[in-house]
Amino acid sequence: MSVLDVRDLRTHFFTRAGVVKAVDGVSFTLEKGEILGLVGESGSGKTVTGFSLLGLVDPPGRIVEGSIRLNGKELVGMSDRDLRKRRGREISMVFQDPIATLNPMLTIGQQMRMALEAHGRVGPRAAVTRSEELLAKVGIPSPRARLRSYPHEFSGGMRQRVAIAIALLHSPSVIVADEPTTALDVSIQAQILHTMRDLARETGTALIWISHDLAVVSSLATRLAVMYAGRVVEEGPTAAILRDPRHPYTAGLIASLPAMAEPGTALTQIPGTTPSLLSLPPGCPFAPRCTHATEACTSEPVLERHGTRGWACFHPVGGVPA
Fold first, then answer.
1. Three-class DSSP category at 308
2. Residue-wise burial string across 140-159, b where 16 or more C-beta atoms lie within 10 A, e elsewhere
3. PANTHER family, alphabetically (predicted)?
């Protein structure tokens, strides 16, 4: 049984201007210890997908359809009280900006103890031991002393490590990481990625890494799900997708990576802009930007499985899938 099984998830926002279909039929599974990269341009629905998994979508947004099964338990339709019992204990989230999620008035030790006590009584000594253990695991030097520090006394990379340690306090089955290295410099980013990969391997915690940066995700994730306009348009093993992308959008993302351009030449760009989710074109939402589009693309493509791969396109690019 998969740790997480998402089926036909649809999260819509009901605004005065109309219905925004931020997540429109997303499906994927996650196995124990697996790292799934959820990638795509800004506005593709990645973050709303992550928030939906934890029941963190606020009005005017709501899940209108679909299933989210965590360790075999259905989360869609679950009461707020029951969701809170699972949030942090079975599924946790690491947000993009740790300074916005850590309380500046409390020490790191106080915040970690509060997180532990949210799901049961914990003695002071046990709380310190567990907190110190996890700070050490994520690479915080002198962990016991740093429990008495406040968030502003840490660098950006260290604060993100603390946020990861808090997410790991209850050994959750799944951690959703929403672009947690975006604001960090390249060397710190690499350290965080290495830490997360090792933690997933050691603890068996499954990880969903949300990012617009395909280069970052490719060095971490074992599997990729590429999103566009609220839908997964391609999914499969990371190495296979990078070597042989089948959806034109995925091929465009890979071609636009700086590493793919010759020094001194202009970077490749995907033509056009992402469509408004209030007025998506009929059929394939990528068709207006796609050089392979034909009359067939006025019908909506369905993501079809091809072995370990899957893509939603009438005119896939590339060769025979690996």
1. coil
2. beebeebbebebeebeebbb
3. DIPEPTIDE TRANSPORT ATP-BINDING PROTEIN DPPD, OLIGOPEPTIDE TRANSPORT ATP-BINDING PROTEIN APPD
HSE value, Cβ hemisphere, 13 Å, CA-based, for 246: 29
Mean pLDDT of the 277-300 span = 93
Q: Phi and psi dihedrals of 118, rounded to 5?
A: -65, -20
Structure-derived torsion over alpha carbons of residues 244, 247, 250, 255, reported in degrees to the nearest 10: 60
The residue among 318, 256, 247 whose CA lies nearest residue 287 is: 247
pLDDT tens digits along 60-94: 999 999 999 999 999 999 999 999 999 999 999 99
| Token pair for 185 | 């410099």
Q: Is residue 322 scored above 60 in pLDDT? A: no
Q: Which domain holds residue 84?
A: 4-99+172-221
- 8 located within any domain: yes
- Cα 193 to its chain centre, rounded Å, is 13
Please report the pLDDT score of residue 319 as a whole number.
59
CATH label of the domain that carries residue 32: 3.40.50.300
> The pTM is what?
0.91
- CB-based contacts of 267, cutoff 8 Å, min separation 6: 256, 258, 261
Q: To which H or E segment does residue 145 belong?
A: helix 143-146
Which whole-number Å values give the CA distances from 296 to 6, 45, 77, 125, 293, in the listed order? Answer: 29, 25, 37, 65, 8
Is the pLDDT assigned to residue 320 strictly greater than 60?
no
> Residue 180 falls within a domain, yes or no?
yes
At residue 265 the predicted structure's pLDDT band, cuts being 50, 70 and 90, is confident
Q: Which two tokens stand for residue 142?
A: 């002198």
DSSP bridge partners of 281: none
